[in-house]
Structure formats: C-alpha cells, structure tokens
Fold this protein.
Amino acid sequence: MSKWYFSLPVVAFLSFATACTFDQLEPVQEPDICNSITPTYSVDVKPIIDSKCAISGCHVSGFPTGDFSSFEGMSSRLESGLVNKRVIEFKDMPPPQSYGSGPTPLTTAEREIFKCWLADGHPEQ
C-alpha cells in the first residue's frame, strides 16, 4: 500500500510537468505605426527637438556633439546613425540626469515619431 501512495504523486507530477512543455503562444504583432504616419523634420521632429534636445547647454549652436536646432546641424549625426542609436536603440536621449532641471524624457509617441522619421530616411520637408 505504501508504494501506491509514493507512486501517485510522482505520476501526477510527471503528467503535469510534460503536459505544457510543447505549448507555445503565438507572438503578438504590434501594429506598425509607421504605416500611418510620415513625419518630417520641420513639421514633426523639430518641435520635439526644440523642447527636449536643443535647449540651453545641450544640442544648440556651439555644442560639441552637434547643433540640432537646424536640420543641417544634425545631418552628420543622422548619416552616421548616431541619432538612431541614442534615441531609438539606447533610449538615453535626453539623458536621465537632465530630467530634474532640464527636459523631460521622450514620450512613447515622440520616440515613435523619431523611429518612423529615421526609418523613412529622415526627410526635412
């Protein structure tokens, strides 16, 4: 009788452990917002840059890592992929240490505008 009590939990455990090992969820496809918007620098991106990037002490004329207050000023950073890397991949622009006294982080919608703009070849107009 004691063998029966011992083997029942083992059989139950093995049944449950193997029952779900082959189940897989289908990946959720997020809608691609870039299919519905075509942002340009002058209309969509510049207002974000003016409020979050090209502020006093950061990405303005004379700033060592680029003047983003004009399309021409940021063109070398666009061509090198640095804007994509910092804004989309690393998500570290604007830098977190500036939040207390400087700009707020990019919202999801603002980051999506950048993503679509960059994916579309970063048109100026």
The mean pLDDT is 82.
